[in-house]
Amino acid sequence: MSENQCEIAFLPAGKATQVPPGTTVLEAARRAGVYITSICGGEGTCGKCRVIVHRGEVETKPTAHLTPEEVEEGYVLACQAQVRSDLVVEVPLESRWEGRALLADIDVIRFGQIAPPRPGTRPYRDDPLAKKAALRLSPPTLADNLSDLDRLWREVDRHFDRPLKQMDLETLQRLPHLLRENDWQVTVTLGQRCCSVMEVLDLEPGDTSHRSYGAAVDVGTTTLVVHLVDLTTGQTVGSRAKYNSQIRYGEDVISRIIHATQEKEGLTELQSCVVRDLNQLLRALTEERGLSPRDVTYVVCAGNTTMMHLLLGLEVAHIRREPYIPTACCPPVIRAAEVGLRIHERGLLRCLPGVAAYVGADITAGILASGLHQSSELALYFDIGTNGEVALGNADWLVCCSASAGPAFEGGEMKSGMRAAEGAIEKVSIGPDGRVLYQVIGNGKPRGICGSGLIDCVAELVRTHYVDRAGQFNREQLGPRLREEEYELEFVLAPAEESATGQDVVVTQSDLDVFIRSKGAVYTAAESLISRLGCEFSEVERVYIAGGFGNYLDIRNAITIGLMPDLPLEKFTFIGNASLAGAKMCLLSQEALEETERIAAKMTYFELSTDPKFMNDFVSSLFLPHTDLEKFPSVARQMG
Amino acid sequence: MSENQCEIAFLPAGKATQVPPGTTVLEAARRAGVYITSICGGEGTCGKCRVIVHRGEVETKPTAHLTPEEVEEGYVLACQAQVRSDLVVEVPLESRWEGRALLADIDVIRFGQIAPPRPGTRPYRDDPLAKKAALRLSPPTLADNLSDLDRLWREVDRHFDRPLKQMDLETLQRLPHLLRENDWQVTVTLGQRCCSVMEVLDLEPGDTSHRSYGAAVDVGTTTLVVHLVDLTTGQTVGSRAKYNSQIRYGEDVISRIIHATQEKEGLTELQSCVVRDLNQLLRALTEERGLSPRDVTYVVCAGNTTMMHLLLGLEVAHIRREPYIPTACCPPVIRAAEVGLRIHERGLLRCLPGVAAYVGADITAGILASGLHQSSELALYFDIGTNGEVALGNADWLVCCSASAGPAFEGGEMKSGMRAAEGAIEKVSIGPDGRVLYQVIGNGKPRGICGSGLIDCVAELVRTHYVDRAGQFNREQLGPRLREEEYELEFVLAPAEESATGQDVVVTQSDLDVFIRSKGAVYTAAESLISRLGCEFSEVERVYIAGGFGNYLDIRNAITIGLMPDLPLEKFTFIGNASLAGAKMCLLSQEALEETERIAAKMTYFELSTDPKFMNDFVSSLFLPHTDLEKFPSVARQMG
Fold it and tell me: Residue A163 pLDDT > 60, yes or no?
């Protein structure tokens, strides 16, 4: 410990930093570049940032998140532990983010998959937002003495029918040399700027028209996914995913907004995180195909409104406070370099249009991909992540709302919760003999339980009467699986000896409470849209379920617990990462982009958080499946 | 003289520099920031860069431009004199440019005046290319929860009807703070970018809508003129003119092109000159009205194609060589800061569209101002400067061409020639008693003769038989006025004792030859257009004469010498600096700008330099007024 600085070393990362006494271990970890899971953003309430202090002194407060044994072993919550001396700190696997910088293939598949276009949806005209054309200009003569620029435009007009074209001064300055040194044969790259203006992004000697790439990006709160797309064929030639390293500043959008607004450089830090992440993905994708990042000339991003703001460095403070106002729902197209994205130096970045603070471009892009807006069928659209967004409509109208589902479906705020990553229990069933069967992502030992696993688990617990309709554990079932801990009852899914962490994987009464509020919020959001439009759930002809979560959802169980409305299973369609699919469609078609803009413009947003009827309905939904069993006739029949 | 460096001091400027031996005195002067007149660009052929070496040694070649007495006095041509030691060099008044950085008021009037709109021309809609609006936004509520950007656009749409709007990232980033810190009252500045897109140039707190200025600029080869325009009233609130300091690199566009293409930093040097000049004018104009250069948000420039290229830093090499190809006739709108213009940091610069290498934006803007293109009258349009441009047409069609008039009309290549500046003889008549009467700009002693004076002078010399129809001095008239010098005959307009320089102001036989070629080129250009279109001069209903030169032209004399076609005097209309007038009209009206674009698009350009008929007709025109007297019936009658 040098004067007023403590040396903090982190294991197993082997990284260290110096901080003044009083700094939290979480903050020290950030400075050292060590990622520690932190859902609550440092409030001490989520209990996820568990670390072990092997040497040195910290000052900390008592917490219910640690057992006396754990405290004995040196466990502290990193956000609550203030540095008092030099430290050696171990970050256990369950609290660790580093090393997961690039998701394993399994996660890429889970997060990055795009459903094929649904049969019956109208395709959009092949017309990418960036395109190249190899031009052979006729050399000037006295009889054909157009200026170099007009000569270029004349040839461009033979390839493309867009009337509005623009060239920057620097490119114009090199135009005469380029044309004459290359025998009047050049390749032009045009990119769509605002208002359908096609801007010259590059002029290259000869014919390079075969090297033309764009990136479609899903900027998720948790996961970033990039598809590298060959703009000449429309094919994804590579895809990669990565956790959003903003996670170190909090797991949900609210924690991020708090960080962005309360810390001096907060917004810049969050922007740097996502930009660095995307650069890492783009570099990996281009390198593996022997391309240069310069070959990528256009990036289309979808994501929720907060994520779009953080990527662009826009003020997010007012998203969080009533009346929930974003800086921009339809941000201008900018040069990717303006935010630090390393693609072509003049390449463009377009964030797709969203609707409101809590219904973002991920939903408009997703609806585009679903084709919902093209059909006369009345359809519901669910995107359930940290926030649950619900839309309802058809070709004539669209309404939407957002439900604060909380992070339960992404494993947050749960004692053994985790994301749908390797080691997560993703499917659960309880056999007639009481045996608990589960399926683990990656087929190894379980480390926790993710959203889809939790839905299965709760449905099975209800079916087997471990849990009653009010969502309370049934004391009559106390035994080896259902046991009473210090504060509450908990159900043991996988005992310590079966798990990868040496700790039990459990579902507690608190977990159930949180979970029921989450599922209730999503269901009630959908119910609100239905009732505001004077419809009935029975009139809904199609239900689209988007998101990595959706693909692994057991619909019957989701109905059993009252997350999804009680409709015939054949009406449900999983559409994968529809946000990413929509971004890719826009990248490949100006027409699809315009359609997305129309979707955003025509979608009516209902703010639920201030609606008293919503609050009443929400309270009624805090049952399994619901206070009003008539709303779930198939579940009622099942229950006999 | 330090090792390998000579100290060169210039009088009376008091400036000095160090150069290696072998450098020319002209180059040393450039480096010292001392301007010396140099028409030929350093070839030693114009004899204008006379300086006196008071101390030190130079190495120089014999030249016919200096008399033995002058050589005795220390006169050398600065471009031919190579430095051999430290020097003290005097730049005599007639070779000096410095001190004339800002033109005197008289010159501003001459170059900057804009004729009022001609009766009968259709006015354009008041719709400036940059405009401000003070906006009062309604604060957001749950029921009206548009994003900040959409809220702004909604209010902007109430003020302006342009659908295409754009905002840059940086402005968007500060939007939320700006709105909330200023009680939702801000002033937006919109500027027209390419393709009619209106871009947000600024957002300011409160109401600053009364401070909205633009600049209309005539970028002349010789003279730069700026009008500072109040965009809220459309009035010019100040105007200033200045010699184009590119003159130090040569007086005509060809010398400038040679400098730009043959010197390593030539293009950059020329661009810096004009940008520095314009900044000086803009600063003076804003300072005198207590404004900041930031209050100027839009600059519209007219000028010939080469001048537009040099301002934008575009390659000019191909303008000079067959087939005479500019880089761009219709350059994109750029940020003024991109070329170094100091106005608002996001202010825009628009160079108006031209037609070809030698028919530039000065002509299209001039035609706009003349209203020629709106009328059914068949009209001729002359703009006579270093280059003479001629257009012919009416509301249905337009043709144009360019005549290499040479610098004769601007006083170049003449022994006593000078620009229309203080001390120039601008009007001449020879009385019946043989007395020579002249009028001097500024009413002081004469220093030389300018274009309008020369036209008068030649016409009077013909009338009084000093000169015959072939343009040769008449030896029979030898006497005190017409005398024989070493090489040729010359006519003394003002003897040394009357002049400001102590030298005779004369017109030599060589001057006559140059002058006749110049006037012949202009006339033949007009004749070519007339004959290509199958017309006769007699069908021309109106002749517009544009340019500072034009205003002081004696039309009768111009017909007498065969410069202008022999038409009734009432058909001639002087329209002042029509290029500047057109630039101002475009600055004030999007509609006028679009009209200018249409004029440029529909104007057919004829290249004369490669037309054998033109060469024949040109030779026929090398008489006074013409070989074919039938073409000048009124002159024939006068001559009896």
Answer: yes
CB count in 10 Å sphere of residue B616: 11
* B152 falls within a domain: yes
- Same domain for B339 and B226: yes
**Judgement on whether residues A397 and A345 belong to the same structural domain of the protein:** no
- How many structural domains are present in chain A? 5
Q: Which helix (H) or strand (E) holds B176?
A: helix B169-181
Model confidence at A482: pLDDT above 60: yes
More confidently predicted of A150 and B577: A150
**Tell me, what's the pLDDT at B110?**
55
On whether any CB of chain A is under 8 Å from the CB of B601, the answer is no
Whether B123 and B117 have beta carbons less than 8 Å apart is answered as yes
Q: What are the tens digits of pLDDT across the range B248-286?
A: 888 789 889 999 999 899 999 999 999 999 999 999 999
Let me know whether B170 and B232 are in one domain: no
Angle in degrees, CA A336, A341, A342, rounded to 5 = 105
What count of Cα atoms within 13 Å lies in the side-chain half-sphere of residue B314? 29
Cα–Cα distances in Å, from B242 out to A7, A148, B220, B269, B563?
67, 31, 10, 18, 28
List the domain range (segments joined by +) for residue B254. 109-115+216-351
Q: What is the pLDDT of residue A105?
A: 43
List the A505-508 sheet strands across, edge first.
A482-484, A489-494, A505-508
Candidate from B147, B177, B197 with C-beta closest to A329: B147
pTM for this predicted structure? 0.83
Cβ separation B327–A142 shorter than 8 A: no
Using a CB-CB distance cutoff of 8 angstroms, which residues of chain A are in contact with residue B148?
318, 325-328
Percent of chain B with pLDDT over 90: 68
Q: Domain check: are A521 and A401 in the same one?
A: yes
* pLDDT at residue A1 greater than cutoff 80: no
Same domain, yes or no: A420 and A501: yes
Q: Suggest the residue from A305, A327, A333, A346 to mutate for an interface test with chain B (most B CBs closer than 10 A).
A: A327
Query: What ipTM did this prediction achieve?
Result: 0.84
A349 touches chain B (CB under 8 A): no
B345/B240 same-domain check:
yes
